[in-house]
Write a structure and sequence with these properties.
heterodimer; A: 289 residues; mainly alpha; ABC transporter involved in vitamin B12 uptake, BtuC; two-stranded antiparallel ribbon; globular; B: alpha/beta; Rossmann fold; four-stranded antiparallel β-sheet; 10 strands; 37% helix
Chain lengths: 289, 249
């Protein structure tokens, strides 16, 4: 096993970490595990493919477009998920609602890019950089750094800003948050938007390197979900750690044994960690419920 | 600060009915509370006392009737906006935020006025002085507080929005008698020294009637009795139902 494998693992781990963070951001105030979260990653990849590879407008335009379209996606998701949940009054309506949203967007992406096997634009910065005597793609390094930056920024937002404090309060108890004067419905809407933007950014960064097919959203959701559960749902730091763990395990086992063993190792690790730490590595016992 | 006309009550519920799903919780409830008044809601479990407070705070929409605060109809105002209108609600079971520090809990109480930094800072300093134990624990996670301290925090947090009316839902629940006495001492002081109006839901009827000016008795979602604290204390029905088990003085 070479350090290359570790770096590859950290890179795909960064993508899973951002999906996991998106999931956690939505889960905190809503207790909804958004199975459509991975669609935001595909959106990020699709928009950057469209802008960079087809329109040849460059990465800055792609970045702006990805943020703009993912804001719209977040607002749409909020309506499509929360409305059925509220109207049905069922505690489990979110399962069907989020899966339905995932399938809707999967179909839309497939229709739009029906003859495109992988949404792969050229990298933002081509070439490689040497690192500990090895070489790593600039794009991979950028992705890892971006994941770290996003994670730190969101953690600071939650802890330091008044609105972040309100998000944490709403996560603990929506009713009590309302009594504080916190517009909980607006907090929920904002969480869907922030979650979508974060996950779409992951798509923007990873698309040049890994295989993002138009219909691969659910796959990323599942990997991100695994990362979130391993790290402890609701904790940004947990999402980061869980993401890197999933990425490393997957890549290392894949290169050491075989391609199919990677997924097996990831899910086996999930099972073991859930037995030893029922609420994940960073989660609080209460948040497991 | 604007003062309403003296003829206008601070809080006025007229014909308020409310339901949880299909289950009737309140029926045609009339409650009036004047500026600076101390009113207690009595009644057995499930009578609708908590529901009344939740309806006033906007956590529950009434199916009919109207709610007025300082002369303004707030029946359709969303709950989160009511906090800024002079309403403070200490919910059942305290509901402090355990992962936030004591100070963060207090600042959340002033979320509606978060842009008025100086005002928030002043209120915070005042409350930390009024509740010294919270000052000592200022940077501690609120989850580490004892029951009595947590209840003080819940009250102080509700006061951060500088309400005209403080609603307390069974603040004595789960507290040692000495802590309850301390807590009610604070509430009494806020009421008499600052003219804060209080709407208190309390199981310990005797204590409550000693503090309050007036009271209402709820049963099965209806007001079955209303009067001054003295009248209620002397009412044989109240004595039989709520004061029987209480120690006589």
């Amino acid at each position: 096993m070479s350090i290359d494998v570790v770096l590859d693992g950290l890179f795909s781990g960064a993508a899973y970490a951002l999906v996991a963070l998106g999931l956690a951001v939505v889960f905190q105030p809503t207790r909804i595990m958004n199975f459509a979260q991975g669609e935001a990653l595909v959106l990020g990849a699709a928009v950057s493919y469209q802008v960079v590879a087809l329109w040849k407008l460059g990465w800055l335009v792609a970045l702006v477009m990805v943020v703009a379209t993912s804001i719209v996606l977040g607002l749409l998701m909020e309506r499509l998920v929360i409305l059925p949940v509220r109207l049905s009054g069922s505690r489990y309506a979110w399962i069907i609602a989020t899966l339905a949203v995932a399938l809707v967007f999967q179909s839309l992406f497939t229709l739009a890019y029906i003859d495109v096997p992988a949404l792969r634009p050229a990298p933002m910065i081509g070439g490689q950089v040497s690192f500990l005597g090895n070489h790593i793609d600039w794009q991979e390094l950028l992705t890892i750094l971006a994941a770290l930056a996003v994670m730190i920024a969101y953690d600071l937002f939650l802890r330091r800003s008044a609105y972040g404090q309100a998000v944490r309060a709403a996560s603990h108890s929506a009713d009590t948050a309302v009594l504080m004067g916190i517009p909980v419905q607006r907090v929920v809407m904002m969480s869907f938007v922030i979650g979508a933007v974060i996950t779409a950014l992951a798509g923007l960064f990873v698309a040049p390197v890994i295989f993002v097919a138009p219909a691969s959203g659910l796959l990323f959701t599942i990997k991100g979900f695994t990362a979130a559960v391993i790290g402890g749902v609701g904790s940004p730091r947990g999402a980061l750690l869980g993401g890197f763990l999933v990425g490393l395990l997957d890549t290392v086992v894949r290169s050491a044994i075989s391609g199919t063993a990677g997924n097996f190792a990831v899910f086996a690790a999930l099972a073991v960690i859930l037995v030893v730490f029922p609420s994940g590595l960073f989660g609080k016992p209460m948040e497991a419920h | 600060m604007t003062h309403p006309r003296t003829t206008e009550p601070l809080l006025e519920l007229r014909g308020v009915s409310a339901a949880y799903g299909g289950v009737r919780a309140l029926q045609d409830v009339d409650i009036v509370l004047g500026e600076g008044e101390f009113v207690v809601l009595l009644g057995p479990n499930g009578a609708g006392k908590t529901t009344t407070l939740r309806t006033v705070s906007g956590l529950l929409q009434p199916t009919s009737g109207s709610i007025r605060l300082q002369g303004r109809t707030i029946t359709r105002v969303p709950g989160w906006r009511r906090t800024g209108l002079g309403l403070g609600h200490v919910p059942e079971g305290r509901q402090i935020f355990p992962d936030h520090t004591v100070e963060e809990n207090l600042r959340l109480g002033a979320f509606a006025h978060r842009r008025a930094r100086e005002r928030t800072q002043r209120t915070l300093a005042e409350l930390l002085e009024l509740f010294p134990v919270l000052g000592e624990r200022r940077n501690q996670p609120a989850g580490t507080l004892s029951g009595g301290e947590a209840q003080m925090l819940a009250v102080a947090r509700a006061l951060m929005s500088e309400p005209r009316l403080l609603m307390l839902d069974e603040p004595s629940l789960g507290l040692a008698p000495i802590k309850t006495a301390e807590l009610f001492g604070y509430v009494q002081r806020l009421h008499s020294e600052r003219g804060l109006a209080v709407l208190l839901v309390e199981q310990e009827a005797l204590t409550a009637l000693r503090l309050a000016d007036r009271g209402y008795v709820l049963e099965r979602g209806r007001v079955v009795l209303a009067g001054s604290a003295q009248q209620l204390r002397d009412d044989p029905r109240v004595q039989a139902a709520y004061l029987g088990a209480a120690p006589t003085t």
